[in-house]
């Protein structure tokens, strides 16, 4: 079974959102083309879904500002602007994303004391989300990963998919993803490639099965 994982294609990470990724919204038509022409047997999506007092928010750390390093649960943590708060429009999928064919939504980041970049488990690896069990049960043999942001949640999700789904071919769809920081994106792609994740384009994904 061939599966597409859409990571955090939410208003919060697009133009006008609280944690807008540069040109994040530009991937929406590319993701839609993958969904309609990629011949996927299954399309799943992750959704960053934080409580209003999430510990990754700089607002919860007096004296700190967004994009400064802080700590959370005793570990170094990038502090973010408040974003993707449960039930707000910032947490909604981008309105132009074709969600009709999304068969499973994995919410993440609900526990205030730990962040969850990966769609598969918390950053401290203390809890699984359920997505790995779901995909293993579906016997996914090819998993294409794309979305926002390449250097955070897309990278973490692709690396976890590679580690947690042995025997599944994991591919990162580069043009269907955007990152927060250019140097971070370059490093993320190198890290994914070194882990055995294939770096492909949406044209590759649509032309192959
Ligand atoms: C993300 C930072 C904080 C992401 C989520 O989706 O990449 N980045 N929360
Ligand atoms: Zn978040």
TrEMBL record:
What metabolic or biological pathway is this protein involved in? Answer: Cofactor biosynthesis; nicotinate biosynthesis; nicotinate from nicotinamide: step 1/1
Keyword Hydrolase among record annotations: yes
Q: Does the keyword Ribosomal protein apply?
A: no
Q: Which Gene3D superfamilies match?
A: Isochorismatase-like (3.40.50.850)
Task: Indicate the segments forming the Isochorismatase-like domain, all copies.
Answer: 3-204
Enzyme Commission number, as recorded: 3.5.1.19
Q: Please provide the record's keywords in A-Z order.
A: Hydrolase, Metal-binding, Pyridine nucleotide biosynthesis
For molecular function, the Gene Ontology terms on record are: nicotinamidase activity
Q: Which family does it belong to?
A: Belongs to the isochorismatase family.
Name this protein carries in UniProt: nicotinamidase
Organism of derivation: Rhizobium herbae
């Amino acid at each position: 079974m061939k599966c597409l994982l859409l990571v955090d294609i939410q208003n919060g990470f697009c133009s006008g959102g609280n944690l807008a990724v540069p040109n994040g919204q530009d991937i929406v038509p590319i993701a839609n083309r993958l969904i309609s022409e990629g011949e996927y047997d299954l399309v799943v999506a992750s959704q960053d879904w934080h409580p209003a007092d999430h510990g990754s928010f700089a607002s919860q750390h007096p004296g700190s500002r967004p994009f400064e390093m802080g700590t959370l649960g005793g570990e170094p943590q990038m502090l973010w602007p408040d974003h993707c708060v449960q039930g707000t429009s910032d947490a909604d999928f981008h309105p132009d994303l074709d969600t009709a064919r999304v068969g499973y939504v994995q919410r993440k980041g609900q526990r205030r004391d730990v962040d969850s970049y990966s769609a598969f488990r918390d950053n401290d690896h203390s809890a699984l989300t359920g997505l790995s069990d779901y995909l293993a049960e579906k016997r996914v043999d090819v998993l294409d990963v794309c979305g926002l942001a390449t250097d955070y949640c897309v990278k973490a999700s692709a690396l976890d998919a590679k580690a947690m789904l042995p025997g599944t071919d994991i591919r990162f769809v580069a043009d269907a993803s955007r990152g927060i920081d250019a140097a971070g994106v370059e490093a993320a792609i190198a890290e994914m490639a070194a882990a055995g994740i294939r770096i492909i384009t949406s044209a590759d994904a649509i032309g192959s099965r």
